[in-house]
Amino acid sequence: MNEGGSKRRTVYRAVGIGGVLIAAAIITLYTPWLGLFNLRVIVVKGNRHITGEEIAHASGLKSGVPLARLPVHRAEKNLEELPWVKDARVTRNYPHTARIAITERVPIAALRTDSGTYLLIGDDGVITAEWTGAPVPYIISDGIPVTDAAPGGRVQGREMLAALVALHAAGIGLDDFVAVDFSDPRGVVLRSSAGTEVLLGSADEVPDRIKELTALLPTLVIGDYRLIDLRFGGEAILVPRKVVNR
Asked: Which residues constitute the domain of residue 24?
């Protein structure tokens, strides 16, 4: 009996060792093919203001990592910390590609700082970048409080942000007007390139006043007036420039 049991144990050990050797052979045989599923290529789309190289680096994705273990959610979070990036989606594309789809913030205004520099304000109130060129291609905003006067900071005050969004949506910008002043939130002032001032009332009333201004603009020449007062809603007070007769 003992002799038979000893033989069976010997057979089991042989089978076990053989199984390990076979597994090792299979792993050795197929390891070169496993590299096909490692990350080799990162494809970026949707970016305009930041480069694909910057996005790939900020994502934290590393070449050679198996796609199955790719930390896509962490990469998305990393990307959404960039001031320009409003939304990021990272997907695996076998055998060796990661695709990054970016939605950037749309600049709607430029905040003039106390030092005279300009910060671009995105459509959700996040400061996306400092503008260093000339001229500034967005309506200039004064007197808007922000959490931090640097990229990544945010506009404080929903009424002011809603006013900027309304100006941008109406297409009111550099063609007729160059600046909007929120220094007194109870008396927002829009200024034209010709020096005309448009009184818009309090910040929370600006979206409605912008609708009235949009309807009024086709009926007049902005430069002919020194002041346009829209504070009273439904009624525009026009103050023409003085005409000097020679």
From this structure: 2-35
Distance between CA atoms of 86 and 139, rounded to whole angstroms?
21
Q: Tell me which amino acid residue 207 is.
A: P
CATH code of the domain containing 193? 3.40.50.10960
Count the residues in the chain: 246
> Measuring CA to CA, which residue among 226, 105, 110 is closest to residue 174?
110
Q: How far is Cα 198 from Cα 236, in angstroms, rounded to an integer?
A: 10
Q: Give the pair of three-digit tokens for residue 185.
A: 């939130």
Distance between CA atoms of residues 79 and 105, nearest Å: 13
Tens digits of per-residue pLDDT, 3-37? Answer: 555 554 544 454 444 443 333 333 333 445 556 79
pTM: predicted TM-score of the whole model, two decimal places: 0.80
- Indicate whether 246 belongs to any domain: no
Q: What is the pLDDT of residues 160-212, one digit of tens each?
A: 999 999 999 998 766 789 999 999 999 999 999 889 999 999 999 999 999 99
| Domain total in the chain | 3
225: nearest Cα among 212, 216, 234: 216
Beta bridge partners of 120: 110, 129
- Secondary structure letter of residue 71 according to DSSP: -
